[in-house]
Amino acid sequence: MTRHFLLETDFTPNELPELFAMARSFKTHRGNSTPPTLQGQSWGMLFYKSSTRTRISFEVGIHELGGYPVILDVQHTQLGRGESIADTAKIFSGYMHGLVIRCYEHAAIEDFARFATIPVVNALTDFNHPCQVYADCFTLTEAWKAEGDLVSSLKGKKLVFLGDTNCNLAHSWILAAGLFEMEVVLSGPESFAPDPHSVAIADQAGFSGSWSFEPDAAKAVEGADVLYTDTWVSMGMEDEKEARKQIMMPYQVNTQLMAKAKPEAVFLHCLPAYAGLEVSQEVLQGPQSLIWPEAENRLHMQKAILSALAAT
Ligand code: CP
């Protein structure tokens, strides 16, 4: 059966240590001995939405693994003229060995996976962003100087996600909480609490136990190892910017809020960041911020994910 990576839980807890070890090896040995795990393969990259990090890191990653990235978009394929996802997925499967997709509705990527006979990788949907949280977790293992089973260093750590807690990254952390056995607290306005449908998907995956919602930001970050935020205004929501700014300001990650977490706490942001809104410039560029290795690690972790999928 074709294996896809649509949800965080599509890799099992037992598989994670090997996956993370592979990502570390790719990072350590980049440029001298990368195993060509995609040699002779062509992988499609279909992006319905803008991207900097995801698009470039996948394109470079496929190339570094010996594969050929086929850059696709909706406008310049017949998808833009109404050809169905079912037919497109079957056609793509005849030419290529895998497909990386960024799209709006999660149902669209599920449809691609249903009809494709090649692996489909989720490069962000409106529901979740699994490649991002895997790279984030990998970044944390580095920050904590983990050795051996890198994944075990995440166990029991407290991560607080602040701001819009009904966005794709927040959903990803709900799923990741149980998978990585972390304590995840979502903190934002009550009106942006995760919707029951998203929570149900996490429940279905069987990994919903270890997250909670706390509307009081100061209380939420007590004892936290990691503070995480994302833009308050996702792609396509620009007209809500002013209203969101008003209601989300108490959840801005600034030096005062960082000071309420553990002294050694670190800051993550998937980027792009809007300094002065969801995070202050001081925190974003400060010593606790891991944003640059976090962004680079997208490349190493995604190379591991692609290699694992290609091997099955
Ligand atoms: N974090 C992230 O997915 O960045 P891009 O939107 O630039 O790909």
Q: Can you walk through the features of this model?
A:
Helix 1 packs across helix 12. Strand 1 (42-47), helix 2 (53-64) and strand 2 (68-72) form a beta-alpha-beta unit. The mean pLDDT is 95. The chain folds into two domains: 8-128 and 298-310, 3-Layer(aba) Sandwich (Rossmann fold), CATH 3.40.50.1370; 132-294, Rossmann fold (3-Layer(aba) Sandwich). It is built from twelve helices and nine strands. It has helices at 16-28, 53-64, 85-95, 106-115, 130-143, 168-179, 196-205, 217-220, 241-248, 255-258, 281-284, 291-310; strands spanning 42-47, 68-72, 98-102, 120-122, 158-162, 183-187, 211-213, 226-229, 266-269. 46% of the residues are buried. The structure holds phosphoric acid mono(formamide)ester. The site of phosphoric acid mono(formamide)ester has 8 residues, from helix 2. Phosphoric acid mono(formamide)ester (CP) is lined by residues 51-54, 124, 132, 270-271.
Provide keyphrases for this structure.
single chain; 312 residues; alpha/beta; Rossmann fold; five-stranded parallel sheet; four-stranded parallel sheet; 9 strands; 39% helix; binds phosphoric acid mono(formamide)ester
Spatial strand order of the main sheet: 7-6-5-8-9
Mean pLDDT: 95
Poorly predicted parts: none
Question: What is the alpha-carbon Rg in Å?
Answer: 19 Å
Output the CATH class name of the largest domain.
Alpha Beta
- H/E order of the elements? HEHEHEHEHEHEHEHEHHEHH
Helix-strand makeup class? alpha/beta
Distance between the termini: 9 Å
Number of strands: 9
* Biggest sheet record: 5 strands, parallel
Give the number of domains: 2
Could you say what the CATH topology of the largest domain is called? Answer: Rossmann fold
Beta content comes to 5-15%
Estimate the helix proportion, in percent: 25-40%
Number of helices: 12
The ligands bound in this entry are: phosphoric acid mono(formamide)ester
